[in-house]
Design brief:
The chain has no helices and 6 strands. By secondary structure, the protein is an all-beta fold. The strands form 2 sheets. A 4-stranded mixed β-sheet has the order 3-4-6-5, with no helix packed on it. Strands 1-2 form a two-stranded antiparallel sheet. β5 and β6 form a beta hairpin.
């Protein structure tokens, strides 16, 4: 997944995690209420799991500066 303006040095590349069913999140702030079916995962450690079914422990947060969407950080594969 790519976000932001890469040509201007403000881009972000991340892996995408497809959820089995959509999840509704609301930070009651800048991102607001969104239904998410794919999360951007900001961790290169997940590269070896591309295309596989995994269970993750992660923290969702609003990435206002690049996408205005919810991303995952502090990711670990269980």
């Amino acid at each position: 997944m790519e976000f932001g303006q890469p040509a201007e040095g403000a881009g972000l590349k991340a892996y995408g995690l497809e959820l089995a069913k959509p999840l509704s999140l609301n930070d009651k702030a800048e991102c607001g209420e969104q239904t998410v079916s794919v999360f951007a995962v900001e961790s290169s450690d997940v590269a070896r799991f591309v295309g596989k079914t995994v269970v993750l422990k992660a923290t969702p947060y609003c990435r206002v500066s690049r996408s205005g969407k919810y991303h995952l950080k502090d990711v670990s594969v269980r």
